Amino acid sequence: MPHVLAFRHVPFEGVGRIGPLLAERGMAVEYADLYRPDAPLPDISQAAALIFLGGPMSANDPYPYLQHEIGFIRAAVDRSQPVLGICLGAQLLARALGAPVYPSPAKEIGWFDIHPTAEAAGDPLFSVLEPTETVFHWHGETFDLPPGASRLAYSAACPNQAFRAGRTVYGLQFHLEITPEMIADWCCQDENGPDVASLDGPLDAHRHAPRLDRLSRLLFGNWCKLI
């Protein structure tokens, strides 16, 4: 069965809503957990596409496994292999493509609005966005737009919320893949404790979940067509 290789950085951040969409198209998800000391390096050439997921670390941290992932991204881009980066994954994409990653002026944790750019109207994925979409975020860093990339979405606090590089490489700063169950689980994880403590109150995991589900099916469904 064709498979998509997903790089996790913590055990509790999986592909979420993307998994069923791939399964509907006859594709499995295999995880590469390079943060584990005994994890073997995968052969990315055997994967139909690569997904780089989120995590509480920084894309600038000097972990060897992050350097391996940046190398995998560059190799995938060189061979026109589809790549999707989410949150930390988008920041790793930006670094791999030559753009800096740095602390955002304001953390976005919870439900915040994003807006498509003019370039999004002609994009195979982002043309499905309404002028304002409320999506889930959990990040304290951001990035500059990589050279030659197309900016596809922005928010009030973060001008670069999504981009496309070439035809098949996408980075999303926000978590369109997340489910209410994942939000509740993330809030209980020790690694996320400082972020949770900084919030004014508990997060409502279901607040915009119906629209997020419809939007993820549209956008990620279109991404699956690129594979």
Structure commentary:
The chain contains six helices and nine strands, in the order βαββαβαβββββααα. It has helices at residues 18-24, 64-78, 88-96, 180-188, 193-197, 209-225, and strands at 3-7, 28-32, 49-52, 83-86, 101-116, 133-143, 150-154, 162-165, 169-172. The chain has a nine-stranded mixed β-sheet with strand order 2-1-3-4-9-8-7-5-6, with helices on both faces. The protein starts with a strand and ends with a helix.
Could you give a quick summary of the protein structure above?
The chain has 227 residues and is α/β, with parallel strands linked by helices.
Estimate nothing, just give the exact number of structural domains: 1
CATH superfamily: Class I glutamine amidotransferase (GATase) domain
> Structural class, from helix and strand content?
alpha/beta
Can you give the helix content as a percent range? 25-40%
The first-level CATH class is given as Alpha Beta
Task: Describe the main β-sheet briefly.
Answer: 9 strands, mixed
Q: Over the alpha carbons, how many angstroms does the gyration radius reach?
A: 16 Å
Question: Beta-strand level of the residues, as a percent range?
Answer: 25-35%
Distance between the termini: 13 Å
Number of helices: 6
The CATH architecture comes to 3-Layer(aba) Sandwich
Order of helices and strands: EHEEHEHEEEEEHHH
Low-pLDDT segments, ≥5 res: none
